[in-house]
Amino acid sequence: MAACASQDTTKSAGFDVSRADRFFVASYRDVAESYIDEVMVDRLALAGLEGLATIDPDISIAVEREKVRIALEGEEAVSFHQPKPNDVNAWAHLTAAAITVARTKSKELEETNTERLYETVFDGVLAELDPFSRYSGRDEARNNRASREGFGGVGIRIDISDEGIRVISVMERTPAEKAGVKAEDLILKIDGVDTRELSQKDAIRRLRGRLRSQVKLDIEREGYNELLPITVTRARIVPQTVRIKKADEVAHITISGFNQNTTLNLRNKIREVSQKVGPDLKGYVLDLRGNPGGLLDQAVAVADLFLTGGRIVSTHGRHPDSEQFFDAEPDDIADGLPIIVLINSNSASASEIVAAALQDSGRAVVIGSNSYGKGTVQNVFRLPNQGELALTWARFHAPSGYALHQRGVLPDICTTGDIDSTDDVLAALRRGTMPIDHDIRSISPDFDDPAAIKLLRDNCPPRRTAASIDLEVAERLLSEPSLYVQALGDVSHATTAQAFSYQMSATAAKSASENDR
Questions:
Q1: 388 vs 240: CA distance, rounded Å
Q2: What is the per-residue pLDDT for 303?
């Protein structure tokens, strides 16, 4: 690294080379040790340095005669001895030093802040990895952690208008609800600051804060002549990902993502609807359409709510810790009532784990279209700059053994392709062309064979939208027990079919007994 010692580095003030060195050591080591496929560190570093050309096109990187040469407008700015291909520390030192020197020669680089430089380098690094590995800078990482783990806030969803900040909705069991904030309230001031002067980002920043700190809201509410001053004490807020509504004794549950509180919220809402409806409850529709995924442990826990045993999912990668097997514990929160899972081509990752686990166990009928096929697990590493590096480190496999990567989950009941209506689906079910054969659903083509994957996915062409036909078919199956049992399909589902028949009989007997009282 001594090659840059004689260079004039006065222009590089603001870019701390020692901090950059620690940043690149940590990030290169994470990739080298944990990424699912082995990748040489020299490839990562050189690709990252080449990315600097997106800021200043006159910069070029070349490797010649065991030297890494950095040039500007074709004229060499500095050269370094080429380290060994997998020497993490040496390549990290080289990256930080090369940026330091390049900033003394390039006005564009000199004027680029440190975070943007990191992002630019990692645009190049990540091009060497898969599409699901990603780098998040300090601010984006903070938001990512808030979505996963929660943040200090009040618990409202807002929209910016010319009049002020409109409250779209108030989350259940949050400080805002306890303090009396209501949907459609117009917040005119936050701690005395006029909200008409705030952007959405500024408003959110002012509403969030340290746990147990207070924020004063001046609210205009329809029907009141004066402003309502409401003081709210902040608490940890985890975004709500579970919604439930009841229609005709069917509980329709929508899960929009999997964060730290998803399983807890789902468990509470199922218990509430079960107590309210009682023995008249026919079953559950678990709507995972458009669900992009989230935390692996939450996907496992959600599936485990409905299973009494057996494999939920397994993960496999290069790192020893990535070899994991997750099995269900006893107790089914739904007490054996039928479950239907809705998926589409935007159902990905954690939502695919849940769908595959409930399908393979015979616990649920899956309806919709082929899912996304995002069958990889990302491990998130926090970096010295408080950014994050999410690296693909494992692929997950359904209980029956197939890898979900690229092929996705095939539903039992397909509502795409030649299907135009609910009647078409029921007709196919009655003539035996549905559910899709278990042997087809269990095929595990090589993810490097696009033709084989396409052939499999063509059994139920993907659809991005949440079509009404999915819910219509689900409700028909739950209203006709014999159709539900038929939709469960083959011998592998026999135990569940028998359990369902027993559950229906037990429910009827319980209802009759209660009526006798």
A1: 23
A2: 98
